[in-house]
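Fig. S4 source data, part A: sequence.
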Amino acid sequence: MRKGKLRLRVCGKIILIAILLNFLTMFPVFAEPVTEPLQNSTEGLMRYYSEMELTLLIEEIREAAHEVIEQAAGEAARAAMLSMLEREAAALREAARWRVEAQNNLLGMQAAKNTGRKNAFIGTVIGIFGGLVLGISGTLIIGGR
């Protein structure tokens, strides 16, 4: 606690010295000179354009604007085409994924069907064999001579 108070006092003294030096020493201050507007060299020499020159200027501006509009339209069409192609590619990838999944399901169903047939055959064989065994053993036990 005491160290903190000592540090605060030292810091306060340094700040006080810096403020006093700021007021006591006069350093030259350089400011930006006031700017005045430049005189237009053609102010008195106003040029008048003929109607034909104005029409040509307007026509050139119109042609330039049409070119810029065509370029912008082309870029917009190109961007739309790219986004459409990206969507179509994503749809094709999704369709391919579903096709592979359907093939896997079909193979699984065929394997299950084959396994079911095999199990049915084994069950039938066991049933017939078991019936024969029970029938023969019953006949031998009950009425066998």
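Fig. S4 source data, part B ends here. The CA atoms of residues 68 and 132 lie 95 Å apart.
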